[in-house]
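Checklist before submission:
- one chain only
- standard amino acids only
- sequence pasted in full

Submission:
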Amino acid sequence: MVMFWPVQQELNCINGDGSILGKIQFDAKHNTYVFSADNEQVVLSASEDASIKQKLAKLVSGHEIIPMQDDD
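Returned file contents:
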């Protein structure tokens, strides 16, 4: 299980143990969303990888968005 928690214009990807796996961000240079691991030592389980890929697909297709945070 992976939870997706919005922070500014990113989504933190958090596993069931509460550890941050990485974040999903919009890559304006390539006009797509990308997942960046929190550090090089993060190893995703098959279900975590599938959840992140599914979320990326929904974002790319426009079926979901990253909510923008209003800091006012």
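Reviewer check: The CA atoms of residues 20 and 37 lie 9 Å apart.
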